[in-house]
Amino acid sequence: MDLLSVFIQGLTLGLAYLAPIGMQSLFVINSALAPISNRLGGKINARALT
Fold it and tell me: Is the pTM of this model over 0.85?
């Protein structure tokens, strides 16, 4: 095995290990922010967030 194939294997294993954790975090953050954005309704716009 050459070094590049070992690197690519490690990269794909690392991505497969970390991707579900990131998706779970996004789900939790979205679940926490959804009630706030529903209560505020149309008061939030792109300019207010930046």
Answer: no
